[in-house]
Amino acid sequence: MKVQLKEWTRKGEPWVWLNAGAVALSTVMVLGLLWLIAVRGLSHFWPHEVIEAEYVGPDGSSQRIIGQVADEEIITAQQLRDAGQTVPEGVEVVRRLLVKVGNRDTLGFDFRWVDETSLHDQRAPTDLFVAERDEWGNFYGRLVRVFEQDKVVAEGEGAWEALQARIKRARALHDKIYAIEKTDIGSVNYAMERLRLKQRRLELEGRDTPEALADIAAERAALEKRFAAMQDELKVLYGEIGRDSFEAEIMTGQVVKVPLAKVVRVFRPNAMSLTEKVGFYFSKLWEFVSDDPREANTEGGIFPAIYGTVLMVLLMSVLVTPFGVVAAVYLREYAHQGALTRTIRIAVNNLAGVPSIVYGVFGLGFFIYFIGAHIDEALYPEALPSPTFGTPGLLWASLTLAILTLPVVIVATEEGLARIPRSVREGSLALGATKFETLWRVVLPMASPAMMTGVILAIARAAGEVAPLMLVGVVKLAPSLPLDGNYPYLHLDQKFMHMGFHIYDVGFQSPNVEAARPLVYATALLLVLVIALLNLSAVYIRNRLRERYKALEM
Prior knowledge:
- The chain is of the alpha+beta class.
- The protein has 3 domains: 51-124, SH3 type barrels (Roll); 142-272; 308-553, Orthogonal Bundle (MetI-like fold).
- Helices cover 60% and strands 14% of the residues.
- It has 17 helices and 13 strands.
- The chain has helices spanning 2-10, 13-42, 77-82, 104-107, 159-205, 210-241, 274-290, 303-334, 339-351, 356-379, 394-419, 422-430, 435-462, 469-472, 499-508, 513-548, 550-553; strands spanning 51-56, 62-76, 93-100, 111-115, 119-123, 128-133, 139-148, 151-155, 244-249, 255-259, 263-267, 293-294, 299-300.
- Helix 8 runs antiparallel to helix 13, helix 9 packs across helix 11 and helix 12 (422-430) packs antiparallel against helix 13 (435-462).
- The longest helix has 47 residues, at 159-205.
- The chain is flat, with a radius of gyration of 31 Å.
């Protein structure tokens, strides 16, 4: 037995099993983490039932509670007794419920912890409804009547159908207002600012002739006319959208009037069928990935953050790939393989271990305060003292992350070049090709899978970085996308939103932590999916290149 055990150990099989167990454990932990994030995040969009119950407090007072159960925890009865609360004899543990009661504008809070033993006569009436609003979070209550210009148009059983129809009308008007304010008026304001800068440049260059100023004045007058027409249209739309409202009874018994202009949707989860709940669930998911955020980023969607993340990663990849490939080609193909080259390789490897915040400080000092300030002085003097490129923006964020991921691309590309047989180079040279032609037509195409490996690793790291972006371009809320229909279309000087920073902001800077927590999980899951999609796209390109040049490697 000892001989067999010794032979088994000598062959190294225990280490094989140990490594296999470590890999299996790591896989289970990663899958478990993803499962936790998915369950906590995706369950937030399901239309949970609205409960109504009588809550008896420690002092014996009774109060009605209406809301949705958002979370729960188990505590011991002794903890409650130590806190001065009365717990029935024989009860060892108590389930505490976190109830989302909403109506923050009236109650002053969104959530409330209650002990399950303190809830009596718990039920889920079908007439309770939820109203999602642009401000003050959810509204919970019973619909009483619907108004049009302070005139009752429906109440009782018919009020719900009337409310649904008027909600659709109000949202259609809201979409028109949003399109005018963000797109049309935004374009006019952008054009007005460009005219102002154009006039200022003419003044600085001494070319502000009466003819040139007259042309600018004519363009400005046309824009002001368009702006005035839009303002008149907005005035009419705001008057129409502010026409309707409804009254509802909340859990305190108070009847509250709510304008429909601020309501996103209304629904009765207790009266919905399974099919209706599934449809509602996917509509909420689509809203999450396609709409702008609202209510301090704790409601609505995260489309600007997705857009900014993907655009920054693509721009970073375009910047880092040529620099990394050129550096690797020089070190492997042209540089003398001596002490200096070895020192450079050691420095490149060490750069990969530098904390990312250091790159952020470097980007802030070198790119923004030095290069950006000089660009403003040379190319945008008319905008000074307001900076154009001398302030954090998309370009500097992409460049900073390109430098951060540059060592990864250099190392991966150099390893790919080293694996190409020397005979391939010699055969090309023997056929009369120059060294550059050999490198361009033979070596680099064969090393392209290794280059893509470096790009994949760069994407995986850059997409999740947050610390350097906080210094060089990312913001809590960007008013417009960095890529739009206004010339020059791609605004490299503009600040942008990022999913990683959005997670940090919502999770740690939100004034309403309980409301933000599910969105943290949902955004984290979506960030993982976006990174996986970017990586899979790069992997697909790498595999295609590998299959294309496999015969040459053999």
